[in-house]
Design a protein that fits this description.
Blueprint lengths: L35 E6 L3 H12 L4 E5 L14 E2 L12 H9 L6 E2 L5 H14 L2 H29 L5 E2 L3 E5 L2 H16 L5 E3 L1 H7 L9 E5 L3 E3 L2 H14 L3 E4 L2 E6 L4 E5 L4 E9 L5 H5 L9 E10 L9 E4 L4 E6 L2 E10 L9 H13 L9 E9 L6 E4 L6 E5 L5 H17 L16
Length: about 450
């Protein structure tokens, strides 16, 4: 199998964008020698959607990224628009399963021993986020974010002409025992309070939803409102093409330093070039907290390293996204193949990938889907930027509200990207946000 991974450093994501001919438009602030209007660091799905919303509003927007548009973590995710996924990770049984999972170096959760001392403060915050007194607030905030995300994605897809990239097949979560199923019920009850529809299935109904499952799975939960996209990389590039049509542009550059200027921000590129921007949005995924430190903000972001293998489309007839929650991974049917991936490795951004983890997931998938052809797969590792309470950071820096943070979405970057684009646009334009943003404040820690 062939492996691929990230280059280390400040990042996000594709081809350099071209703005309309200067004969058809007024010159941009940068072309007039005034610097950038709005600079976005990060070309992943969050930065792309922020750019799309601001370009729609008539602002001059430039994305800076070391690699390209949607070329890194946003390119290889599980393709889910997981609007029903409102439970914070600390409440998904991770604490309960932690000792068992950590005993297995290739299990759903892995922490390299040498990294544990550095990770310990984050783990303590994660444990505290699971306390009952914080649960309801986090749950309500996440549910509100998801309602906005679903509405904003529907609108953005309609405006960008990308509705044909949406799949509405639902998801199927699977259980290997009655005990595992019963342990999931409190979580489903919490979702039900927020109007999320689902049905528990077994027997013939389970087989009908996904033929060819191993008989080890005795029950499942079908969520009809769960959606996926045909391919996350193609989706990101399509939204970027829409932003480009509205005037957004891309510059391939690594940002080495950022700072607050007299009006806005300064960006120092790797080649020593210094740029000015009236407003700066930091949406650099797993590297964002390093940039936030330049503005005096210490945000406890950690990196969930996720692994997957994308098989040819002929590998198995997967009807909808299959969720093996007890093992921490999913199987997703894409336009470009069948993707087997997930799990969590809390190991930072510097360690090389451990593709034994993707192979372990593929081995499990073969057991769970007898007949799955494992040949011809492409391995991948991505870096999910995660905060202890499972809520992203959306808001201004301490030093200046012309610097806006939009990062830390964890497993939900694709899901919440359009909502984040709307919220950041409203902040920059001085409009009242559609709901209280205090649960997402950069200062909440």
């Amino acid at each position: 199998m062939r492996g691929s991974t990230h280059v280390q450093g400040i990042s996000t994501s594709a081809k350099a964008g071209r703005r309309p001919s200067s004969a058809l438009r007024a010159p941009s602030p940068r072309e007039r020698g005034e610097g950038e209007d709005i600079a976005i660091i990060g070309g992943g799905i969050i930065g792309i959607c922020v750019a799309a919303y601001l370009a729609e509003a008539g602002r001059n927007v430039t994305i800076f990224d070391r690699t390209g548009i949607c070329e890194e973590t946003s390119s290889g995710n599980a393709a889910a628009l997981a609007f029903s996924d409102v439970l914070p990770l600390a409440h998904k049984g991770m604490i309960r399963h932690l000792p068992k999972w950590l005993a297995d170096p290739l299990g759903p959760l892995s922490i390299p021993p040498a990294y544990l001392p550095k990770l310990l403060p984050w783990l303590i915050r994660f444990w505290r986020a699971g306390r009952s007194d914080r649960y309801q607030a986090s749950l309500a905030a996440q549910a509100g974010m998801m309602r906005l995300a679903e509405a904003e994605w529907a609108g953005l897809m309609a405006r960008s002409g990308t509705e044909n990239m949406l799949r509405e097949d639902g998801s199927l979560e699977l259980y290997e025992s009655e005990a595992e199923f019963k342990a999931s019920l409190p979580g489903w009850a919490a979702r039900q309070r927020f109007g999320i529809g689902f049905s528990h299935v077994e027997g013939d109904a389970l087989v009908a939803l996904q033929p060819g499952l191993s008989p080890r799975f005795v029950k499942g939960t079908f969520v009809p409102g769960w959606k996926t996209v045909t391919d996350p990389k193609l989706m990101g590039k399509a939204i970027w093409a829409y932003a480009e049509r509205n005037g957004a542009r891309f510059e391939k550059a690594r940002i080495d330093h950022v700072g607050a200027g007299q009006v806005g921000a300064t960006l120092t590129l790797a080649d020593g070039t210094v740029r000015q921007a009236k407003c700066l949005v930091i949406a650099a995924g797993a590297w964002s907290h390093l940039l936030a430190k330049h503005f005096g903000d210490r945000i406890p972001l950690e990196t969930e390293r996720g692994y997957n293998t994308t098989l040819p489309k002929t590998a198995f007839d997967v009807k909808r996204q299959l969720i093996f929650s007890g093992h921490g991974f999913v199987v997703t049917p894409l336009e470009t193949g069948v993707r087997v991936g997930g799990a969590v490795e809390l190991g930072g951004i510097e360690r090389p990938p451990n593709y034994a983890r993707s192979k372990a997931l593929l081995d499990k998938a073969q057991k769970f889907l007898p007949g799955l052809d494992p040949a011809g797969g492409r391995e991948w590792m991505g870096l999910r930027p995660s905060l202890p309470d499972s809520l992203p950071v959306i808001g201004g820096a301490r030093q200046a509200d012309t610097i806006v943070y939009a990062f830390g979405h964890g497993h939900l970057g694709l899901t919440q990207a359009a909502a984040t684009g709307r919220l950041v646009r409203d902040l920059i334009l001085g409009q009242n946000p559609v709901f209280d943003l205090s649960p997402f404040s950069p200062n909440r820690f």
